[in-house]
Design a protein that fits this description.
Elements (H helix, E strand, L loop, with lengths): L1 H24 L23 E11 L2 E6 L4 E6 L2 E2 L20 H22 L3 E5 L13 E6 L8 H7 L4 E2 L7 H13 L7 H10 L17 E7 L14 E6 L5 E2 L4 E3 L5 E3 L5 E2 L4 E5 L9 E3 L13 E5 L5 E6 L1
Parallel strand pairs: 3-6, 14-15
Antiparallel strand pairs: 1-2, 1-5, 2-3, 4-7, 5-6, 8-9, 9-14, 10-13, 11-12, 11-16, 16-17
GO molecular function, one term: nucleic acid binding
Keywords: Endonuclease, Hydrolase, Nuclease
InterPro entries: Lamin_tail_dom, Lamin_tail_dom_sf, SNase_OB-fold_sf, Staphylococal_nuclease_OB-fold, Thermonucl_AS
Amino acid sequence: MRHAVFLAVMILLAGCGQGFAPTATTPNSTSTSTSMPTSTESDLGPTQTQTATVIDIIDGDTMDVRLSDGSIETVRLLGVDTPETSITQVSPEEWEGVKDTTDGRDWLVEWSKDATRYAQNRLAGQTVLIQSDPEADRRGYYGRLLVYIFQSRHAEISFNERLLLNGYARYYDSSFSQQKGYQATEMTARDETAGVWDYTSRTIATTTTSTSTSISTTTEDGSGDIIIESIHADAKGNDNENLNGEYVSFKNTGDEAVNLTGWTVSDEAIHEYAFPAGFKLRPGESMTLYTGDGTDTDNELYWREDGAVWNNAGDTVTVKNDSGDTVDTYTY
């Protein structure tokens, strides 16, 4: 009888040990903490989001941020790649249609500067949301956090994708969940010869006139320096009864005045506004376009629509120059 009791106890102990071991030793456990990172562990978990303040723009796809716990991290934007900042480091072979010549390399360096300036105008000093991806590594080369950046909680697309859409970056082949979408966005930008993908037009222009200058975000008329600064889509009360309660603001971030004659602003539906002839926006200044009626000034314009334009649930603001080229877009 004592032998039987002893044998039963041994079997029970063996069973308990076998059941406990996997949770203690399995290295591939997918259990993750839902708490925000601490100052000693700021890696984001799969699809984890937290607020951060952008304190320095290194280049178009890399920046330093201060996390909510006070720690500082360098982040690298997932899925996109802006041109390198040095003529010896740019790789024209990575940019379809850009020739591996001195001219082609100069073109990419120019766009590297434009991408950096675009990020500075949009993100520097701003509080943003950074988000990891469940299929991407937490950190990349040099220990940088790999993230998406969203400019607000209501933003429908990330700043990463905005770089692609406006031709400041190419799709960067790596493991992340948005691969197909980002590939499609790059193809859209290429089809529209947005930004860096407009190299063919530049080549034609430089062969037809000796005074032609590079076509970059900062063009001869300063068109690339006009950005959509903000939008207030949800007017107080009934939007259709408070038309000037919804408005869009623009800013000239360049060093020269920009003549907006022939430029347009449109939404995703059928609304389109044309800037009045001779209207100029001075360097460093902002102007506001109101939906309703009013008297135009140097910094305030009125669409004079009979009803609300901007969709409170989400919309896209598109600015095009007098040639019909998209200068900036803003999706909310």
